[in-house]
Amino acid sequence: MESGFPPTRDLGFGFEAEPGNRPEDAGLLKRSLTEMEERRRQQLQQMPFLRSVKQRTHLASPVGRLASPARLPTPLKSTSSLTTVSSELAPQRRADFGPDKGSDAMRNRLQELERRLLLDDEEDETCASGSALTGAEWRGQEVQQIIFPPPPPPPGLAAAKKLLPSPTNSASSTVSSSASSSPPPPSFTPPPPSSSSSSSRHVLLDAAASIADGNLEAAEANLAVLKRSANPRGDAEQRLTAMMFATLLARLNPPRTGRSKAIAELCSGEHLAATQMLYDLSPCFKLSLIAANFAILEAVKDQPKIHIVDLDVGQGRQYDALIHALADRHRCRPSSARPPAVKITAVADPTTLLYGNYDASSLSEVGGRIAKLAERAGVGLRFTIVSRRASELDAASLGYEPGEALAVNLAFVLSRVADESVSPANPRDELLRRVRALRPAVVTLVEQEINTNTAAFSGRFAEACGHLGALLESLDATVPRESGERERVEAGLARRAVNSVAREGADRVERCEVLGKWRARMSMAGFQPVPVGPGVSEPVKARLASFRSNPGFTIKDEAGGVALGFGWMGRVLTVSSAWR
Q1: Buried-state track 534-545, b at ≥16 Cβ within 10 A, e below 16
Q2: Are 239 and 202 in contact (CB under 8 A)?
Q3: Which end of the chain has the least Cβ crowding within 10 Å, N or C?
Q4: Domains in the chain, start-ordered, CATH in brackets?
Q5: What letter does residue 498 receive in the DSSP assignment?
Q6: Cα–Cα–Cα angle for 438, 440, 444, nearest 5°?
């Protein structure tokens, strides 16, 4: 059976079984036994590396890594470490050795050396259970570098390796060790520019895992690497690193007493303005709100009175698009038809800052602006404000009048209401029961497609890295990087990441869930999904086409056509659905 080694008969240390076939053998045979022993003793002393090479039956043989790529050897089951190493490491030295079968002293020395090597295998048996890169293999690499000096690394490879963290678990340790112990193949090319991005993402995840495990030493080492690669004004990956670096620091330094400062920051006017800018600048957020508008219009079409209850009106930009859509529909009808009367009720919970967080004066300004826009568009609109707890909402408190087609808009609301994981009262389900009791014609639900609710810290961190990374890339495709609005939007995203990922308990405001969980929660509350029809999907897709042309943005049906998912480069960022 071919082994892949050179076709010479090797007896253990570069001795050939058939002497006399080479010219130099004649000279060697004339030497005295004493000279031969002295020569072999000196050359043995000059090769200390043989003491470090050990046979491994459960790991890849180091010899395989030392062979040239042209003829990688097949591991031999019955070959000792001494024989295997000598046949690969010292073929060029065999010319210096002649056969001397009568030399018992030399044979005894070789047997003693091989016996010690085999004993070393037993001594290091436990070392192989950890990292795949053992001490013997490391020394074997040194031997390879001495005999076969490696070529200089390709440009850019050293810089990419600097970002690799020290592994904190056995899985990452094995991967890192295997990568470092194997020489690059002949066809190796420098990593593409995205390799640094994947490396920084790996360091982020490794740092989060270290913090979760309480391994502060490894966490600090990774944070030092992240600090050098983070740049709030760099590319998408550098900005993501800066955001998540701040999140890791916040996790390491939680607030000592009272509610965290991040809650106040999330309820500030600056943060609310940044959130509205996100809805305006990001096609994924903007289109999901437009889809909710068309779902409302489809559910209440041909109704003379429309009453929309909104628990987070914000700056009211969502209704700008709804008013324009109503006006466009009215133009397509006969002149005798009258546009429907619209009433928007903004709910402000005085006991919490989670809904809207607008005081009466701010909401009045929003309502006045919307009413003026509706007047110019020829749509009659009335804006009212109701200050009520979520647990006190009913038809009477909301000013519901007979004959009104009622719609409830829950756009980015439920994710900021605590659920059973925070409070036994489960305010999230209580709110849904209250909404269900209103018997609305439609309930629109818009949320981010990310799980930052019940997942542990490491899971939330990984979810946020993927979600925010795609969102930042999508912003690069639509908004100039030097835009002041862009900076404010990303500052708001950083605040949200700190709160939703680094905080726990009542200090965590935003608790997003994926569509599957929202479907289960809505069904338990007694709602049924409304399939997405062409009256919703077609105008939304037309709006996407009207935006700056970029194939990275996608719209696709979710959950069998009961929702629309809006994403970037295949990752869904927001989902819009309707229920009744």
Answers
A1: eebbebbeebbe
A2: no
A3: N
A4: 24-147 (no CATH), 268-449+512-579 (3.40.50.150)
A5: I
A6: 120
**Could you identify the residue written with the tokens 């593409």?**
192
Q: Decide which of 63 and 37 is more confident.
A: 37
Q: CB within 8 A of 243, min separation 6: which ones?
A: 468, 490, 493, 494, 497
pLDDT confidence of residue 434:
95
Residue 528 has pLDDT above 50, yes or no: yes
Question: What confidence category does residue 128 fall into, taking pLDDT thresholds of 50, 70 and 90?
Answer: very low
Q: List, for residues 71-85, the tens digit of each pLDDT value.
A: 334 443 333 333 333
Rounded to 5 degrees, φ, ψ at 255 are: -65, 140
For β-strands 529-530 and 571-579, DSSP reports them as: antiparallel
DSSP helix/strand/coil, 183 = coil
Confidence of residue 264 (pLDDT cuts 50, 70, 90): confident
Per-residue pLDDT at 113: 53
SS3 content of the chain, % helix, strand, coil (to 5): 55, 10, 35
pLDDT band at 470 (very low <50, low <70, confident <90, very high): very high
383 Cβ contact partners less than 8 Å away, ≥ 6 residues apart: 343, 344, 346, 366, 367, 368, 370, 371
Give residue 554's pLDDT: 93
Return the pLDDT at 224.
Answer: 96
The residues that bridge with 554 in the sheet, in sequence order, are 567
| Interior/surface letters 402-417, b for 16+ CB within 10 angstroms, e for the rest | eebbbbbbbbbbbbbb
How far is Cα 498 from Cα 136, in angstroms, rounded to an integer?
45
Q: Identify whether the C-beta of residue 419 lies closer than 8 Å to the C-beta of residue 426.
A: yes
Residues 6+ apart with CB under 8 A from 477: 548, 550, 552, 553, 568
Residue type, 135: G
Given a cut of 60, whether residue 89 has pLDDT beyond it is: no
Using only the alpha carbons of the chain, give its radius of gyration: 36
Task: Quickly list H helices, 148-230.
Answer: 157-161, 170-181, 194-213, 216-229
Grouping H, G, I as helix, E, B as strand and the rest as coil, residue 293 is helix
Angle value at C-alpha 465, between 463 and 471, nearest 5 degrees: 105
Q: What tokens were used for 162? A: 């600097």
Beta bridge partners of 385: 346
Contact indicator for 427, 515 with CB cutoff of 8 Å: no
| Separation between Cα atoms, residue 337 and residue 140, nearest integer Å | 88
